[in-house]
Automatic annotation (TrEMBL):
This is 3-keto-5-aminohexanoate cleavage protein. Pfam families: BKACE. Its cofactor is Zn(2+). It comes from the Bacteria. One of its GO terms (molecular function) is 3-keto-5-aminohexanoate cleavage activity. Keywords: Metal-binding, Transferase, Zinc.
């Protein structure tokens, strides 16, 4: 759960589901992504989980050149572990999803552990959209599932894991995804320790209930024993309360504007760093120490910041 008794804070800085019309504070341009990432690291995030966006209108982008406009800046200004998405965004091809990570050869990437319905279409009529693509993205989630088939998962493990020494944040949206991690572990394609990222509250995945968190923890304990770390996050409103429960149970935590745009009920977060500071305050009250980037690297067995390609 928490190796050495310290919690690793991950910050997911921008994502691909929230859009510019939802919050003026969502980082869009390479400069905004770099600045907010650096601030989040300074606030206490050991891992930064990153997507790229088209600076012209904020839509998700797989363009490796965009990644290279902010990754070197973050590395130069912080010691944080950089974790790049392989999930990308709805509509991305397999080549799109791998383009940025293969160019950057990062210490970590995310890795979604199963295809699923991933519904956020309920947001389609709740905003005045600045760009047509935003509402289309929302509505598309009602018609098209998120594709993370076994062949794609294996390809990522081989090309990035074996080919680049990259390790993974195994994104598990349901209990069955834990068994998928176990399948690939038994096949020898991945090695411990496994960073299991339990994701709660997505329509189509497991709900954000304490009972579901405990079921995920108990299942992971049975499948992986001492060979894993559990981190978690809940989308939207229950974010901070859920993370406090996770930390109390010995888990690690993830915050960020990818997961929730708010800092309190009805109040938008003004930055990723604001969310990092809040969860750090909660951890302090719970008397849970926070891991540094160097400690996170040692705990997760990462290759080190000097072995990346940016």
């Amino acid at each position: 759960m928490q190796k050495t008794g310290k919690a690793i804070i991950t910050c997911a800085v921008t994502g691909s589901i929230h859009t510019p019309s939802m919050s003026p504070h969502l980082p869009i341009t390479p400069d905004e992504i770099a600045r907010q990432s650096i601030e989040a690291a300074e606030a206490g995030a050991a891992i930064l989980h990153l997507h790229a966006r088209d600076p012209r209108d904020g839509r998700p982008s797989p363009d490796p050149d965009l990644y290279m406009q902010f990754l070197p800046r973050i590395k130069q200004a912080t010691d944080a572990v950089i974790n790049i998405t392989t999930g990308g965004a709805p509509g991305f091809s397999e080549e799109d999803r791998l383009a940025g990570p293969l160019r950057a050869s990062p210490e970590m990437t995310s890795l979604n552990m199963g295809s699923m319905n991933f519904g956020f279409f309920g947001l389609a009529d709740k905003f005045d959209w600045k760009h047509d693509w935003e509402r289309e993205l929302m509505l598309g989630s009602k018609r098209f599932p998120a594709n993370h088939n076994f062949a794609l998962i294996e390809r990522i493990m081989v090309e990035l894991g074996q080919g680049h020494g990259t390790r993974f944040e195994y994104e598990c949206y349901d209990i069955g995804h834990l068994y998928t991690v176990k399948h690939f572990a038994d096949a020898g394609l991945i090695k411990p320790p496994y960073l299991i990222q339990g994701i709660f509250g997505i329509l189509g995945g497991i709900g954000a209930d304490l009972e579901n968190f405990m079921l995920m923890k108990q299942t992971a304990d049975r499948l992986f024993g001492d060979d894993y770390l559990l981190s978690c996050f809940a989308v939207g409103r229950p974010q901070m309360k859920f993370l406090a429960q996770c930390a109390l149970a010995g888990g690690n935590v993830r915050v960020g504007l990818e997961d929730s745009l708010y800092i309190a009920k009805g109040r938008l977060a003004t930055s990723n760093a604001e969310q990092v500071r809040k969860i750090r305050d909660i951890l302090d009250v719970l008397e849970v120490e926070v891991a540094t980037p160097a400690e996170a690297r040692a705990i997760l067995g990462l290759k080190g910041g000097d072995a990346v390609a940016f």
